Write a sequence for this structure.
């Protein structure tokens, strides 16, 4: 179990599979500085484990109704989302996330390896979601690239994405990566053939993982300091109130 869900909800920023490529001269000349900067912006994507299950649940429950519909292909209730999160298999599959400075999970992806099906053991299914306030930053595209890299290193040769046909953002990411998209009424299926793993792909995944872990630990340290400062402020205010009441 622990299927990534039939569909995904992402922002509309496009993607290319693997590491984003540099713009050529003609593109750079016609591209605003802000867009050029966006292409090279690094996003710390951390691998999630069993201990992050509550954060995954909080993230998915925070999705607005329409986003839940796009992510799961139906109007998922809190109970159905809870069941999905309970069935996540962090040992078989891979779950990735992007955290903000407050350690809130603002974007996540589920890469489900189809090892239980002999004919599809070299395939993996991708599902992704991004909360509303974090849209337009390319997190969906970056998570897709990250999943492609990890899938290659796990000997996967085909990435599968199921999406509602109205989910143009997800389908755009798949098409830009070179996937073949087949539409059947309200549903679409994208299949992307992946290149084989290389020494470079393994080194890239290792470096990205270590950098993301360092970023997470730094954010965690800042978060703990902010929490302590808030506690001290509350204690100070409490002491001040006691002194004032005593004087009065």
């Amino acid at each position: 179990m622990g299927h990534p869900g039939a569909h995904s909800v992402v922002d509309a920023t496009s993607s290319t599979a693997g590491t984003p490529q540099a713009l050529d001269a003609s593109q750079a000349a016609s591209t605003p500085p802000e867009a050029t900067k966006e292409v090279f912006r690094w996003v710390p994507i951390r691998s999630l484990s069993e201990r992050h299950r509550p954060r995954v649940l909080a993230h998915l429950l925070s999705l607005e109704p329409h986003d839940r519909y796009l992510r799961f292909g139906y109007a998922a209730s809190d109970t159905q989302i809870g069941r999905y999160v309970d069935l996540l298999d962090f040992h078989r599959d891979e779950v990735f996330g992007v955290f903000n400075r407050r350690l809130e999970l603002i974007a996540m992806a589920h890469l489900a390896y189809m090892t239980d099906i002999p004919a599809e053991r070299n395939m993996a299914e991708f599902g992704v979601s991004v909360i509303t306030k974090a849209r337009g930053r390319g997190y969906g595209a970056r998570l897709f690239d990250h999943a492609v890299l990890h899938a290659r290193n796990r000997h996967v040769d085909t990435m599968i994405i199921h999406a509602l046909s109205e989910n143009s953002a997800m389908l755009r990411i798949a098409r830009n990566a070179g996937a073949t998209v087949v539409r059947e009424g309200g549903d679409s299926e994208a299949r992307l053939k992946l290149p084989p793993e290389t020494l470079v792909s393994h080194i890239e995944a290792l470096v990205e993982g270590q950098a993301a872990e360092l970023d997470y630990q730094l954010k965690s340290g800042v978060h703990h300091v902010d929490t302590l400062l808030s506690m001290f402020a509350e204690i100070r205010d409490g002491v001040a109130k006691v002194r004032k009441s005593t004087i009065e």
Summary: Residues 12-40 have pLDDT under 50 and may be disordered. The longest strand covers residues 105-113. The longest helix spans residues 199-247. Residues 153 and 199 are 9 Å apart (CA to CA).
